[in-house]
Amino acid sequence: MEFTLRKYQPDDAQAFFALGSDARITANMREGFCTSFDACQALMIDFSAQDESRQLCRAIIVDGKLAGSVGIFKQEGAFEKSAEVAYWVGVEYWGNGIACRAVEQICQLAFAKWDIVRVFAEPYAHNAPSRRVLEKAGFVLEGTLQKALYRNGSLYDYCIYALVK
Hints:
By secondary structure, this protein is of the alpha+beta class. It has five helices and seven strands. The chain has a domain of about 110 residues: Aminopeptidase (3-Layer(aba) Sandwich), CATH 3.40.630. The protein has a seven-stranded mixed beta sheet with strand order 1-2-3-4-5-7-6, with helices on both faces. α4 links the parallel β4 and β5. α1 packs across α3. The protein starts with a strand and ends with a strand.
C-alpha cells in the first residue's frame, strides 16, 4: 500500500482522534494518548507549529486520508545523541507494511537532519506487531524491563529497541 508522510496541519485533529482513539491502538500507547478531541487538537497545533529542532512529526497519508502517525523526538542532556521514535497506524491499515516503512523514513530524516547516532523505541513486550515493525526496520532488541510500567492497575514489561547509525 502506497503512502506519503507530510507535516501535520491543525485540521488533522478530527481524523487523528477518530483513528487514534480506537481501543486496539490506545491499549498499546502511553497514558494520556488521544484521550479527547481537545487533546488531539492541542497536539496537532503543537506538531504543526514546531521548528523541528527537537521533534519531527508526520501524518501518514493513504489515498489523501490520515492513516496513522510517526514521530521522532530528540533527547536532551547526556542523551542528546539519541532520539525516540513513536508510531501507530489505524486498524484498517494494519498488515500493509506502512508502519515499518514510515519508521524507516522518519529515522533516515532524523539521521540526516540532526547530529544523533541512535534512535530507540520502547514498545510493550506483549505488543508483538509493534516489535516486528521495529525488527523489520533494522532495530535491535537491547533488553526487556520486567514489570517496569504500571498502567490501569497492572504491571507490564516493556522492551528497548535501538537503531544505531
